[in-house]
């Protein structure tokens, strides 16, 4: 495909203009001659400019979905032509990874990394993927695309292991793993044909902002996510002795409950009582049907049900299990959902976004998102 710089220029787009504008305001944050761009701002600029679906909230392998192409967006300071950057965190799997060393550790990292890429492929119907890079140097930006390959586990070599880190190659890229931070890094190389965007940093950005707001040329935002008003986060687990666990006979494993004959697709997402107490008007009343859209755009009929409205279910119930158990978690019929499976894939919560009274969206959220939601 064409580079995003070419696409932007051919469509007389705003991408390069917005990157340049934000970079020129670097004096708000730094005295350096190297432009400053917050990574979230770079993601938002990209998605706005190319009408891509922003995936950064779910914290899966990709930051954006552009026409079924998974995009990893990276912006970083680069004083040379190479930079080693974080590509994955495995905090919830640190105990598992600590049991391995050398090539076995490299292979396990490859397995976990590839699992998360494949998860994002399934979630968002991704057909191919790439990294879009904005490298920042003195008074200019370097823009280019590079591969977003899975790790070739069968070709892992050049392994260097010590107390601080593990380094290995797979024939395509050089990776390093920081033991204490449980973080995987990859070396990125700026090609000679990268697009160079000169940047003149404004000397006094504060005066510019004062003049801008005096003219009142801005439009207030009214579509932002507001906690409890248009979104909540739900856990896929329960707590026992301060440890997470998945109920063996309810929740994601409701199909395993006794008492009557159960369908293998019978599941529900637990709604903690605290959600109803704090945000009692978020969900429709019990047994009231509403639309629930999954990340691919497919829409289910759903409802809140059971005692104390503790369960979010689809109607038919099998629709939820086909998506969450079969497509996302890749569980076979009769296979229990476990915290180990969730930890391996890097999520344990879901976000529910309300677009109106009878229209909702659902997506996965990274590990500990429900905890963070409650503590914010």
Counting helices, strands and paired strands, the structural category is alpha+beta
Rg over CA atoms: 23 Å
Separation, N- and C-terminal Cα atoms: 41 Å
| Mean pLDDT rating | 94
Range of helix content: 25-40%
Order of neighbouring strands in the sheet with most strands: 12-19-20-16-17-18-15
List the helices and strands and how they pair.
Elements (H helix, E strand, L loop, with lengths): L3 H7 L4 H10 L14 H12 L2 E2 L9 E3 L2 E9 L4 E8 L4 H4 L4 H23 L3 E10 L2 E8 L9 E5 L3 E5 L4 E5 L4 E7 L5 E4 L6 H10 L16 E5 L2 E3 L2 E3 L23 E2 L2 H6 L11 E4 L5 E7 L5 E4 L3 H11 L10 H7 L1 E10 L2 E8 L2 H7 L1
Parallel strand pairs: 3-5, 16-20
Antiparallel strand pairs: 1-2, 2-3, 4-10, 5-6, 6-11, 7-8, 8-9, 9-10, 12-19, 13-14, 15-18, 16-17, 17-18, 19-20
Describe what this molecule looks like in 3D:
The chain is globular and about 70 Å long. With 376 residues, it is α+β, with helices and mostly antiparallel strands. The strands form four sheets. A seven-stranded mixed β-sheet has the order 12-19-20-16-17-18-15. Strands 1-2-3-5-6-11 form a six-stranded mixed β-sheet, sandwiched between helices. The protein has a five-stranded antiparallel β-sheet with strand order 4-10-9-8-7, covered by helices on one side.
Can I get a quick summary?
The protein is of the alpha+beta class. The chain contains 10 helices and 20 strands.
């Amino acid at each position: 495909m064409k580079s995003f710089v070419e696409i932007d220029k051919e469509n007389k787009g705003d991408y390069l203009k917005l990157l340049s504008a934000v970079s020129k305001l670097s004096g708000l944050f730094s005295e350096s001659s190297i432009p400053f761009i917050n990574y979230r701002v770079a993601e938002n600029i990209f998605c706005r400019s190319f009408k891509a679906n922003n995936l950064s909230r779910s914290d899966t392998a990709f930051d954006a979905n552009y026409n079924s192409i998974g995009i990893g967006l990276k912006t970083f300071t680069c004083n040379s032509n190479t930079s080693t950057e974080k590509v994955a965190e495995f905090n919830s799997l640190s105990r598992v990874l600590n049991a391995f060393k050398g090539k076995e550790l490299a292979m396990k990292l490859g397995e976990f990394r590839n699992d998360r890429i494949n998860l994002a492929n399934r979630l968002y119907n991704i057909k191919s993927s790439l990294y879009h890079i904005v490298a920042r140097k003195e008074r200019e930006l370097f823009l280019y695309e590079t591969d977003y390959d899975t790790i070739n586990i069968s070709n892992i070599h050049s392994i260097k292991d010590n107390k601080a880190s593990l380094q290995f190659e797979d024939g395509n890229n050089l990776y390093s793993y920081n033991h204490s931070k449980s973080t995987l890094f990859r070396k990125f190389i700026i090609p000679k044909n990268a697009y160079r965007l000169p940047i003149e940093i404004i000397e006094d950005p504060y005066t510019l902002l004062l003049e801008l707001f005096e003219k009142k040329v801005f439009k207030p935002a009214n579509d932002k996510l507001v906690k409890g008003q248009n979104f909540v986060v739900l856990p896929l687990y329960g707590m026992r002795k301060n440890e997470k666990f998945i109920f063996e006979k309810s929740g994601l494993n409701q199909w395993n409950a006794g008492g009557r004959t159960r369908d293998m697709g019978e599941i529900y997402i637990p709604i903690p009582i605290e959600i109803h107490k704090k945000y009692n008007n978020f969900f429709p009343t019990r047994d009231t049907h509403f639309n629930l859209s999954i990340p691919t755009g497919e829409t289910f009929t759903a409802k809140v049900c059971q005692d104390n409205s503790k369960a979010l279910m689809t109607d038919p119930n099998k629709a939820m299990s086909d998506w969450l158990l079969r497509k996302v978690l890749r569980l076979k019929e009769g296979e229990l959902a476990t915290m180990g499976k969730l930890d391996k894939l890097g999520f344990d919560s879901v976000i529910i976004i309300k677009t109106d009274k009878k229209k909702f969206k659902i997506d996965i959220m990274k590990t500990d998102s429900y905890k963070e939601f409650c503590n914010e």
